[in-house]
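Researcher: We plan to redesign the surface later, but first we want a full-length starting point. Tokens attached.
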């Protein structure tokens, strides 16, 4: 059986982790008293608040997908809305009716691939943003990857960092967690896109192949 390589740290039976990037949580302080809503598009934004000791749980949270919401719930978050599209720009449009007349804060990465903030501003939402973490390619040793392997790309950063380290072979199969991540793959790499924006769903898809 060919190998399945997952480009993040989550553990699954029958899957090998190939971590090609790392997360750095930035130092910051926040006064959340003036905000009515927090927007999350990543679990790392949640972890960044915890790393900085921010008391954020009572402020209503608007979260992009069920998996991210599950992590927020574990910390005791006040979940007000969970998106159903799993994609940044679509999520922004889902949020518009819920964030009217709410002072909103988007906790985000240094590099983002969606236009969430601009879409909300253009639709009259009073939104600020704070950069709470950043991703960078790591310096871990390059492995020899088996032919006919399946590579699971979990974010645009995973695409960027994988292709900086490894040459793509025609025998490889690619699975992308969503449409945005798929767009970052070179045109010569054909990929399957998970029906749900979920690492678990990507793994299930790889195991079926």
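Model: Full-length starting sequence:
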């Amino acid at each position: 059986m060919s190998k399945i390589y997952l480009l993040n740290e989550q553990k699954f039976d029958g899957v090998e982790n190939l971590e090609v990037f790392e997360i750095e949580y930035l130092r910051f302080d926040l006064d959340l008293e003036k905000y009515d809503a927090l927007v999350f598009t990543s679990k790392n934004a949640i972890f960044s608040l915890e790393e900085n000791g921010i008391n954020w749980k009572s402020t209503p949270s608007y979260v992009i997908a069920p998996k991210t919401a599950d992590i927020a719930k574990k910390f005791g978050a006040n979940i007000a809305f969970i998106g159903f599209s799993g994609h940044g720009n679509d999520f922004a449009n889902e949020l518009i009716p819920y964030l009217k007349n709410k002072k909103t804060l988007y906790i985000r990465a240094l590099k983002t691939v969606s236009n969430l903030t601009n879409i909300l501003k253009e639709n009259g939402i009073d939104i600020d943003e704070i950069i709470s973490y950043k991703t960078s390619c790591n310096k871990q040793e390059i492995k020899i990857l088996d032919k006919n392997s399946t590579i699971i790309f979990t974010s645009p950063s995973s695409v960027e960092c994988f292709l900086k380290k490894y040459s793509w072979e025609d025998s490889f199969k690619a699975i992308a967690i969503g449409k945005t991540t798929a767009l970052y793959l070179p045109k010569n790499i054909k990929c399957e896109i998970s029906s749900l924006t979920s690492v678990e769903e990507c793994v299930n898809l790889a195991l079926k192949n």
